[in-house]
Amino acid sequence: MEQVLIKIEVPLSTNQFKLPKAVNNRLQQLLDRQDQGKKLSTAEREEAEGLVDLSEMLSLLRMRAERVWRESQ
Fold first, then answer.
1. Is 10 exposed, middle or buried (0-12, 13-18, 19+ CB in 10 A)?
2. What is the CA angle 62-8-57, rounded to 5?
3. Within 10 A of 40 (CB to CB), how many other CB atoms are there?
4. How far is the C-alpha of 40 from the C-alpha of 49, rounded, in Å?
5. How far apart are CA 55 and CA 30, in angstroms?
6. Could you read off the pLDDT of 22-49 as tens digits, one per residue?
7. How far apart are CA 45 and CA 30, in angstroms?
8. Which of 20, 37, 56, 67 has the fewest CB atoms within 10 Å, i.e. the most exposed one?
9. What are the angstrom distances between the C-alpha of 24 and each of 38, 40, 44, 54?
10. Closest alpha carbon to 25 in 61, 53, 63, 51
11. What is the sign of the dihedral through the CA atoms of 45, 29, 34 and 58?
12. d(CA 10, CA 40)
């Protein structure tokens, strides 16, 4: 695995490091259907997996931004 350092400007509020409401609602809808034992189509499963990956990446960015802010104060 290769590591790359990227400098980005980070918003002052970590609230921006989350899925938009409509996207999160779609993810929840797909996960709820799956939890109810309903089979997702291949496209729906791929969509859900992609949204979970995106959500996890945003959470990681939020945690790292919060750590940097704490350390800089």
1. middle
2. 35
3. 15
4. 11
5. 14
6. 999 999 999 999 999 999 999 999 999 9
7. 8
8. 37
9. 19, 17, 14, 10
10. 51
11. positive
12. 36
Joined together, the tokens standing for residue 10 give 């980070």
Q: What is the pTM of this model?
A: 0.77
Non-local (6+) Cβ contacts of 40 within 8 A are 30, 33, 34, 48
End-to-end alpha carbon distance in the chain? 32
Of 32, 61, 26, the residue nearest 47 (C-alpha): 26
Q: Please write the tens of the pLDDT for every residue from 8-25.
A: 776 667 777 889 999 999
Query: Helix (H, G, I), strand (E, B), or coil: what is residue 9?
Result: coil
C-alpha gyration radius of the chain:
16
